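Lay summary. Proteins are chains of building blocks that fold into shapes, and those shapes determine what they do. In this project we predict the shape from the chain. Here is one chain we studied, written as its sequence of building blocks.
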Amino acid sequence: MTLTSIRLNFFFCLFGASTLWSCLGNQVNPIQAKSEYKQAIEAKSINAKSEMYSHLNKAIQMDPSEPNFHLALGTAYLEDGDLKNAEKEFYETLKIDSNYVEAHRSLGRLHMAAGKWDKAILELKGSLAKPGVSSPQEVHNWLALCYYSKKDMNLAMVEWQNALKIQENALIRLNLALALKDLENDELAVQSLKKAINLRPKLVRARHELALLLLKKKEFDEAKKQFNQVLKLDKEGKFALEAREYLRLIP
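And here is the predicted shape, written in a compact code that computers can read:
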């Protein structure tokens, strides 16, 4: 398995990006800048991106010293894959407030998107060292993915366990299972997938991966059950197509 395929197989649990918006503050000055910022959030909620960018830029023009505006604009750029402008806004945020934990968290995600694992690890660890980081289990999950991409499996496993100690999460369980599967630790991978399914029964990828492992173990009846669940949940998706082929071949 190539590094690229490994990275594509993982779920980054991107609810962290939306969390950034909800944790941004509301105290701004002048009042007109605050109004523009609120309109930007409203535009984002209905996926009106051009309006969102317009309102955020106006808010920054009216009050360039407000870190929340820069963080919000950087987050928008990051979500749209504009890493250069996102990085600029995150650093602007830190120029205003060097202890703004969410800016460090966001820079970590940005460096992950760019494949700069060491820089990502530095920023993500920095965010965990400060009080008030949102969804710390997500940060540990991202750290695990960084270490996994660096082929440091021991530290990756430690970070996934750290994440799960904070909060059980189906996608993190799936990530852990995929790593265990890659290490050919099928028994632990099966356990993690079953926990993921218990947490989120409609998680198609987890059921598909579990079916493949059960098939490998020649537990054909159980594998069929999981493949049939994939068909119900995925219908005409890629996992359903594969499930039909496996069901045709299973004795």
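What the prediction tells us: Residues 31-45 form the longest helix (15 residues).
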